[in-house]
Amino acid sequence: MDEPQWLNADELEAWKALAGVLFLLPTALDSQLQRDSDLAMADYMVLVILSERDGRSMRMTELATSANTSQSRLSRIVARLEAAGYVTRQMAPDDRRAVLATLTEAGMAKLVAAAPGHVAQVRKLVFDRLSPAQVASLNEVARALSNPDDSATCEIST
C-alpha cells in the first residue's frame, strides 16, 4: 500500500477547524429545529428545497440530488414528512416510473413557522461571526465541498 499524502501544517489546521464546525453546527441546528419545530435538519432542508420549486413539487431522484443524499435516505425522510402530512408522493403524470414529492399546504405552513427560529440560529452560529468577505469565501468553499467528484458521496443525515 502506498504511503498516504499527509496533510501539511496549514491543511491540518484547516481540517481540524472544519471538523470542529462539522461537530458543532449539525448538532446545534438539529437541536434547535427539534426543540422548536419537531423537525430534523434533513426534514427542514427537504421542505426548503420543495418550497423553492415551481408547483412545490419535484421528482424524488432530482430531490435526492438537490439534497446531496441517497435515494434510500431520501425515501425515509420523505416517508416521515408524508406521515406528518407535510409532503405527498405520487406517480409523475408524464412518466409512471417516476415519483413526485409535493409540499402540502401543511408542509408550507410548518416551514414558515420553523424558518424564523432556524434562521436566527444560523445567523447566531455562522453569519454574525463573519465579515462580508468571509461570507463570500464561505460560499465559495462550501460550493466546492458540496460538489464532490464521482468517487465520493456527500449526504445529509436523517
From TrEMBL:
Instruction: Report any one BP term from Gene Ontology.
Output: response to stress
Q: Which InterPro entries match?
A: HTH_MarR-typ (IPR000835), MarR/SlyA-like (IPR039422), WH-like_DNA-bd_sf (IPR036388), WH_DNA-bd_sf (IPR036390)
Q: Which Pfam families did the record assign?
A: MarR (PF01047)
Which domain of life does this protein belong to? Answer: Bacteria
Domain HTH marR-type spans what residues? 11-147
Single GO MF annotation: DNA-binding transcription factor activity
Q: Do you know which PANTHER family this protein is assigned to? A: MARR FAMILY REGULATORY PROTEIN (PTHR33164:SF99), TRANSCRIPTIONAL REGULATOR, MARR FAMILY (PTHR33164)
Q: What is this protein called?
A: MarR family transcriptional regulator
Native species:
Cryobacterium arcticum
